[in-house]
Queue: 4 jobs
Job 1
Amino acid sequence: MSSDHRNAAPAPGLARATGSDRRGQLGRLGEELACERLTALGLRIVARNWRCRTGEIDVVAAGPDLLVFCEVKTRRGHGYGTPAEAVTPAKRARLRQLAAAYLAAVEHPACRVRFDVVAVHWPRGHAPVVDHLEAVF
């Protein structure tokens, strides 16, 4: 697991948004941080928010002989648990099914597959903390 305390200002625009718009913006910003982290590790982002009729994969990244399916969870606080705890057994099973659908739908060379979680904790008024959990399931 790697952790990063960003020296960024609080997310611009979130103070003006309301309700689900604010959560959607926060989620998109968390996905952007996840992509930055994966890219910094030498992976190439090949898909963001890949959708099929059964759901969505937040990020798909590629490395040498590797595809990484990444679930991104961004939270303001721990009132409902940590971001990583939000990736329940049901969510893991669904991500496995979505990965199988992706592999069937998208042409790619034979490779290993890995499932990662990027958890972003972004308290109001503070910089985000990014935790990258590799091969968590």
Note: The radius of gyration is 15 Å.
Job 2
Amino acid sequence: MKPWFEKEAEIIPFPKKPERQVIKMPSVSEYPDFITGVLDLQARRDKGQIGQDSYDRLYQDLIHRFMKKESFEKPWFLRELKADQLKIDVQKAIQSLNPDDPEHINLLSRLYTTLNKTDYSERVLQVFSKDEDNAMQKTLDAIGNAFLEIDGTIPEKNQFLDEYEKGKSFVDLDSIAASPGNVKSTADLFIGNIGKRLGTRLITVAGSGYSTGNVGQGEIALASLSREIRLATGGKDGGDLLIRNTPIEVKSNKARMFDKGNVDQGGIKSFLQKARPDLVNANLTVEMVAEMDTADTRTTGEKSGWPGGDDEQFWEGLFNVVLKTRYPDVSLSAKTFSDRVGDGRQFTNAWLQVQFSQYRASAGHKGLLLIGPKSFVYANEGLHLAQNIAQYGYIYYPKTQEAREVAVQFKVQ
């Protein structure tokens, strides 16, 4: 028997929605692996079952589930922030580069996993991130883009990652300093087809502030392809790279010998005020002195008022001040330069030697690697770079106090 209220009341049932309209929100805990999760989320997004905001949030949840490796000895909350940021940045790169291609997703995931298993963050990214104008993700984007776009099959690239993870160096470390002064092919620095293609492609990756001393071209490529190379941290390390713990300076096309710091021109100015006050505001390039008295008519330097090469007292006095104030760590006499005024290549070679020696003493490197996408040259003395000079710079340039403005400038293809 029904109760009275049920007899008298008119029961209005709630409308039932068709079961097919009820969409269950996906849970990342249900996915067996990262790739399956990505493909399912993409399919749901494309069908309109989830919006872009939900897709982005679930994608990040997926990253945190599958890409955060745990251990009892060192759980995630004890790891350094940089390492966790590396994971997030690499996965953002995966999402931005080509997330709709399963093979590329898998390849980039393997690239990430390989980097994460090695010490890449400590050797490269944490140092590179000190360049305030560049996030680590820009570096990872460049590496990911290059890895996808270089020629090579998926199996070839997977084999490359297998060998890299096992510790193989794809940089021919012995060839770097094998023939100082000889210009050689950059591709010869790298090992294997994938290594050569990836290495030459990454040569131009650098910090946006590299011209003023931040991570420069060539450094990322070399450190990325050999676990025996790391970016130097500055200070006691010396150089830009530590190659088997040996500090090496790295320069690229249009780079200067001195790329930061100030230059003391006060001593030269004081000398000129006493010897030739009319030249206090005049510029003096290395080329002006090298060509002095070499033409029938007056040279550029002489036209600007500088004395000819036969004024030995003036030039010896000037270079005595130059060496004391600008190159205090180099043991050369002023006559090394005053005797070579107007001698062309002999003078520029002497100037190149003194600049290289002072730079090595101040930077603390054991050698200099000048590198471009096509060629490189290694130097452990100034003369090894004689064929790669764009301009020799200034002996005196009163308008600036920046060392890079007066320094030798390099050229390399």
Note: The radius of gyration is 31 Å.
Job 3
Amino acid sequence: MNSFKTVRFQKGAGKPFLLYYFPETRIETDAELEGEVINMVILETKNLKKYYGEGESLVKALDGVDLQIEQGEFVSIVGTSGSGKSTLLHMLGGLDYPSEGQVLVDGKDISALKEDALAIFRRRKIGFVFQSYNLVPVLNVYENIVFPIQLDGNEVDRKYIDSIVKTLGLENKVNALPSQLSGGQQQRVAIARALAAKPAIILADEPTGNLDTGTSQDVLGLLKVTARKFEQTIAMITHNEEIAQMADRIIRIEDGKILKGGDGR
């Protein structure tokens, strides 16, 4: 008997629906028959809230955030300092728990997972690119890239890793230590590491914050190219409007609320 999978689709601006199908069978849906584009929602929040303190000291860092990000999208989340964008990234990445609401990654409500299960899910399904690179100083470039895969006890897909390394122009740096790399090269290693485990989504937190303008453009260009090539979804936090314009869509957040772009419009 063939096994089946569950796929979540978004038809137009309507609600997502579930479809069961056999992997060997061509998928046919009403949306296809009507000639509409089918978009799969890979990341979603529902009435997401994060409060700190209480009474007069209550801070509503996130106050009822609803957003959807489709598979393969490159989305920028922008806002002023204190707008809630970093808190939102922490919620999306399972780095903190919400006060209320849901965060669904690849159809899984990560806000309902216990800490150990959340850590495993985060390692397997979410790739991170941070402003400070967060490379292990005693490991070389290749070892840093495959480290999360080995940490999970999985076999490294060398052909896939080699393809990432080549795309990011790191072929001649695989044996170098982080201290022997420029800032731009270190960030490329961080991007490769985020891609290596084939996550459901990559979250980038001010990935060009420590880079000069020219290097920032180069790194973001490579991030976009690799995302397209390896069919990855990216949500990027940035305060830089010029950098934000490189994304497919911009989501604006202020005072813990989505002002524009959360629903794809």
Note: The chain has eight helices and 13 strands.
Job 4
Amino acid sequence: MSYASLLINSCTVERHSQVNIVVGTDGNDYYCAEAHTATANDRPISGFEYWKYWKPTGGSGAGAVWVVGTAYIASATTDDYGNPVTVWAIATGLGDEPCRLMATADRGLEFKVGKEVVVADYKLFLGDVTITEQDRVWVYAGTIKGWALYEILLVKDVQDGADSHHKECYLKTVR
């Protein structure tokens, strides 16, 4: 039996846009709250005027590298607390990917996500595709259940002895 014959579901991988989220000199992420062209004075958080242009996201290390001279644009959409709203889009080339979704045999497997401990609900098997814990995935589970959305907690690259063979992803159901 081939590996491909075991992939009975279909999934779509989504990525979010972090165009105007940067990593500050303290390692935390900041989003652009006021449009500007970057100077040393507004670098988060070492620039003495950074607070005029940047607000903390509450995350760390996922933003882009801050670059002097870059024209940063303020986030157009914010939530009720003034934080930027994440925009998700289908990852290039990953719109209808064969996959297999299974309940985790090791129910209760815990992962640390930020400051939270999260329990994995499912394990997803995919071919050798580019996918990370920053993505999320929609899985089609048949006509009765339809599509379900999952957060990716961990991506394991499984080797066949020579190179990458497939990915195993631990998932949490998004409710």
Note: Residues 1-5 have pLDDT under 50 and may be disordered.
